[in-house]
Amino acid sequence: MESPAEPCELLPWDSNFFGFPVARVRGNVLTPDIADAIECWCEERRIQCLYFLARSDDSVTVTLAEAWEFHLVDVRMTLERTVSDAPRPGMAKPVSGIRETRIDDLSEMRRIARISHTDTRFFYDDRFPREQCESLYETWIQSSFEGFAQAVFVSDVKGSVGGYVTCHRSKESDEGSIGLIAVDVPHQGKGLGRQLVAAAMEWFIAQNVRRVSVVTQGRNMAAQRLYARTGFIPRTLELYYHRWFSRGDS
Ligand SMILES: CC(C)(COP(=O)(O)OP(=O)(O)OC[C@H]1O[C@@H](n2cnc3c(N)ncnc32)[C@H](O)[C@@H]1OP(=O)(O)O)[C@@H](O)C(=O)NCCC(=O)NCCS
Q1: Domain-located, residue 55
Q2: CA 133 to centroid of ligand 1, rounded, Å
Q3: 223 CB less than 6 Å from ligand 1?
Q4: Does 41 share its domain with 15?
Q5: CB 89: neighbour CB atoms within 10 A?
Q6: Domain range for residue 158?
Q7: Residues 113 and 192 in one domain
Q8: 75 in any annotated domain
Q9: Are 172 and 198 in a shared domain?
Q10: How far is the CA of 155 from the centre of ligand 1 (A)?
């Protein structure tokens, strides 16, 4: 049992998925004392990979992260949009090709998920085997389909899946979020991304969601521009670090 004062927490799902102990730092700042406590905690539990989501405006945190060999793997952007019934300029209306997903879409969605999310921190960090990164997003879209997301829409292009978007609604507030969005490579640049976002926004309106957020990578220009075109503005910018420990027993 971990007390609230502990500097990190073990991540059972990630540890099981990757096959070695994975943890994350609690909190978003480092001080010399916290960095020492993290070191001891990880040593005791033989942690191999530690995630740290840091504030970007604290120079002490960044300096300490670098000194303790945390590696920058992602500039994490959270964007948001207030939902209103009036479509914003540049928003495409959902077209008839967008529909809720069904079971026979699943194998195509899994295939697209495996190849699409290559700007994420897992693909960027080459200590994670590529096959496992592909499998991670395949698993993610499958669990989204199975109920992790409250709605999943696909773009139906002549009977096959051209892309997907997953939608989440908070149980506690009137906030929602877009989880995963991807358009299959042959169909990119033709407006499907915009249409998927538009379909998601229609769903959020019907769910009485007032504010929608989405997380993406600073390096993902296609996603940044898609969200800018569909009315999303920045909420936060954070730095994602991974720290790997060589234990000599792995
Ligand atoms: C991001 C993504 C969903 C966009 O889908 P898309 O169908 O190609 O996008 P659209 O054709 O609707 O274009 C919408 C806007 O996105 C931007 N955009 C799309 N592709 C782009 C690219 N390769 N480079 C730069 N901007 C791009 C453009 O600004 C475009 O609007 P504009 O043409 O009016 O300037 C798609 O590139 C994709 O699946 N990427 C891989 C998965 C991913 O990164 N998902 C998002 C983070 S989880």
Answers
A1: yes
A2: 21
A3: yes
A4: yes
A5: 7
A6: 80-237
A7: yes
A8: no
A9: yes
A10: 14
Ligand 1 pocket test: pick from 111, 118, 226, 230 the residue with the most ligand atoms within 8 Å of its Cβ.
Answer: 226
Residues facing residue 237 across a β-bridge: 77
Residues 146 and 38 in one domain: no
In a domain, 74, yes or no: no
Specify the number of domains making up the chain: 2
Residue 175 shares a structural domain with residue 231: yes
Instruction: Report which DSSP code applies to 127.
Output: T
CA 84 / ligand 1 centre spacing (Å)? 23
Instruction: Report if residue 48 sits inside a domain.
Output: yes
Point out the ligand 1 atom lying closest to the alpha carbon of residue 220. 44
Tens of each residue's pLDDT in the chain, 250 residues:
455 589 999 999 999 999 999 999 999 999 999 999 999 999 999 999 999 999 999 999 999 999 999 999 999 999 999 987 666 555 555 556 899 999 999 999 999 999 999 999 999 999 999 999 999 999 999 999 999 999 999 999 999 999 999 999 999 999 999 999 999 999 999 999 999 999 999 999 999 999 999 999 999 999 999 999 999 999 999 999 999 998 765 4
Rounded distance from Cα 222 to ligand 1 centre (Å): 4
Same domain for 19 and 119, yes or no, is: no
- pTM > 0.90: yes or no: yes
By most ligand atoms within 8 Å of CB, the mutation choice from 76, 116, 154, 183 for ligand 1 is: 183
49: Cβ–Cβ under 8 A, 6 or more apart, which residues?
18, 20, 21, 22, 23, 127, 242, 243, 244, 245
DSSP bridge partners of 157? 160
| Joined tokens for residue 187 | 């169909």
Structure token digits, residue 95: 């077209």
Beta strand extents in 84-184 (DSSP E only):
98-100, 151-157, 160-169, 175-183
Ligand 1 atom nearest to 163, measured from its CA: 39
